[in-house]
Design a protein that fits this description.
Layout lengths: L5 H23 L5 E4 L2 E8 L12 H24 L3 H24 L2 E9 L2 E2 L5 H20 L2
Antiparallel strand pairs: 1-2, 2-3, 3-4
Helix pairs in contact: 1-3, 2-3, 3-4
């Protein structure tokens, strides 16, 4: 089996873009929130839970249990990427892996995931998220598309 370097480059670029954006946010935190458009603001949120802030304030034990589960899932995604043969699957898995690694780095170095993108309309706010979350979402969408294409 020939090793394909390209997906691992995507993983590396995803992690770098995510971490650079979060470094900027951490340095800008005293000046946030900042409204970019009437529907988009840059904020600073440290999420110790999972997506949408679930389990955010549940304590240290829950934080580490969630972190361990995420690490095991990330290792499984890395294994799947290493064995992937289809380009669509490689793209999807590499974006998911890059996003997951970016958020794991946050958990270890910042004690939670740094979220900063805030979409809102009037008083309604979508939960804040980051580039890693976006990479994971796009990667999962590509995997669904690949799977649908395969079964139709």
């Amino acid at each position: 089996m020939k090793f394909n370097l390209f997906p691992w480059i995507i993983v590396s670029v995803s992690v770098c873009l995510d971490q650079i954006s979060k470094l900027y946010i951490l340095r800008s935190a005293p000046f946030l929130p900042e409204e970019i458009f009437s529907f988009l603001s840059i904020v600073f949120v440290k999420n110790k839970g999972i997506s949408f802030g679930l389990f955010n304030h549940k304590g240290t034990l829950v934080f580490w249990v969630i972190t361990l589960v995420i690490i095991f899932l990330t290792l499984y995604v890395a294994y799947m990427l290493y064995n992937a043969k289809k380009r669509d699957s490689m793209w999807g898995l590499s974006l998911v892996l890059g996003g997951a690694l970016g958020n794991i780095i946050d958990r270890f170095f910042h004690g939670g995931v740094i979220d900063f993108i805030d979409f809102h309309y009037a008083a309604y706010h979508w939960p804040a998220f980051n580039f890693a979350d976006s990479f994971i979402f796009i990667g999962v969408a590509l995997l669904f598309k690949s799977n649908l294409k395969e079964h139709t």
